[in-house]
Amino acid sequence: MELQEFLKRYNDGERDFSGIVLKAVDLSDTELTSIDLSDADLSNAHLTRTDLTDANLSYTNLNGCRLLNTILTNSNLTGTNFRNSNLERANLSYANLIYASLANTILKFVDLTGANLTGANLTDANLTDANLTDALFCNTVMPDGQIENDPDRVLTAEEFLRRYAAGERKFYGIVLRNVDLSGASLERVIFDKVNLSNANLENANLESADFSDTNFTDVNLSGANLDYTKWSGSNLTNANLTNARLTSIIFDGANLTGTDMTNAENLTGSDEGVVYYNTILPDGTVKTDPHHAFLRKMWELGD
């Protein structure tokens, strides 16, 4: 796609540009808020002072880009490739940088307030005078190659259950990877930007829970009570929801790639903007959205 056509379509209200190729373009001083550029290739692009607030840049190739003073507040940067890029004075506050590659980047004076850096790679990055207030470090590779973990936010199952039993219901930005919460009673719990990848929640009671932008990759939710739950923007890639209860679910914006819902009970609710790719429905049929099938084919050809 040519740059002018891209800008016209954005200005006309289009927001989904996932998988687009815009190598070495100049988008400096452009407002692109709430745009979806997931899986796009913008390598060597000029994005100085570009406003990408609330953008989806997950798994986007930004290798070798100029991102000076770029605004990426609250953006989804999961798995994004920033290698060899200059992000001096960029604003990445509250961005999701899970498994992002920031190796050999310039991050001088960058604002990473509240950013989630779980699994991010910062090898040889320049973090001079960066603001890391409340940033989450979990298995984060630091510039010197050391692994950083935040003991106050990486919780054990025991500590999490203790806090829930004491009356705490809202959990923001914590990490519960690989924990065993099978059979736990967690009604009305609120998870916001929580990492639950590979957790075991088999037969758990999560009725009326609210999960926003939460990572459920490879989670076992078999037999769980998920009635009246909300999953806005959450990632359920390869999650096991077999035999789960799914009454009045709000899956809006969720990623259900490879999710298995075989024999789940009473799947009802809304699914606006859901990613379906090799998703197994309760009756055993496999659902793939044609748009996402096309993108996946393009990725495979690109490989």
Structural class: little secondary structure
Q: Overall mean pLDDT score?
A: 92
CATH class of the largest domain: Mainly Beta
**Poorly predicted sequence stretches spanning 5 or more consecutive residues:** 294-303
- Let me know the largest β-sheet: 3 strands, parallel
Give the gist of this structure.
This protein is largely without helices or strands and 303 residues long.
Structure explained in plain terms:
The protein is low in regular secondary structure. The chain has two domains: 1-150, Pectate Lyase C-like (3 Solenoid); 155-303, E3 ubiquitin-protein ligase SopA (Pectate Lyase C-like, 3 Solenoid). It is built from three helices and nine strands. The protein has helices at 3-11, 157-165, 290-302, and strands spanning 140-141, 147-148, 170-172, 190-192, 210-212, 249-250, 269-270, 279-280, 286-287. The strands form four sheets. It has a three-stranded parallel beta sheet, with no helix packed on it. A hairpin with a 5-residue loop joins β8 (279-280) and β9 (286-287). The radius of gyration is 20 Å and the shape is globular. 47% of the residues are buried.
Essential attributes:
single chain, 303 residues, little secondary structure, Pectate Lyase C-like, three-stranded parallel sheet, two-stranded antiparallel sheet, 7% strand, globular, disordered C terminus
